[in-house]
């Protein structure tokens, strides 16, 4: 393994197998709310915390906060302070996060087809 990002992303049990890249992708966006947050930021652009929470109304504030922190630590989301008084933060996708657009679109399309088939 090369750099620290690779080592943090790919589990030691992966052992440089050719599917390690899939493991890395799953590690970064495989948590329940991560793809949804990315999807909402792709659809609406930068959003404040409350606006993002309104876009994902079933997520708790704690889970949203933890998920955003995780996505930020992994370089997929930017957090910018846009106002000190009142304090406001805005979240946006980094270039790396925005590059997930085709992945998120593919997940959306596949999920749509799967749900239509399974409800038939």
UniProtKB/TrEMBL annotation:
GO molecular function terms attached to this record: DNA binding
Organism: Haloferax mediterranei (strain ATCC 33500 / DSM 1411 / JCM 8866 / NBRC 14739 / NCIMB 2177 / R-4)
UniProt keyword Transcription, yes or no: yes
Protein name: Transcriptional regulator
Domain annotation HTH hxlR-type: ranges: 20-119
Keyword Secreted (UniProt): no
Keywords on record: DNA-binding, Transcription, Transcription regulation
InterPro entries the UniProt entry points to: HTH_HxlR, WH-like_DNA-bd_sf, WH_DNA-bd_sf
């Amino acid at each position: 393994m090369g750099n620290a990002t690779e080592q943090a992303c790919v589990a030691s049990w992966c052992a440089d197998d050719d599917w390690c890249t899939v493991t890395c992708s799953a590690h970064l966006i495989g948590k329940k709310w991560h793809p949804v947050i990315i999807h909402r930021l792709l659809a609406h652009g930068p959003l404040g915390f409350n606006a993002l929470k309104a876009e994902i109304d079933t997520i708790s504030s704690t889970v949203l906060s933890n998920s955003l922190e995780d996505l930020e630590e992994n370089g997929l989301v930017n957090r910018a302070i846009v106002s000190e008084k009142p304090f406001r933060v805005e979240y946006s996708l980094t270039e790396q996060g925005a590059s997930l657009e085709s992945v998120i679109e593919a997940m959306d399309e596949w999920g749509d087809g799967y749900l239509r088939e399974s409800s038939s």
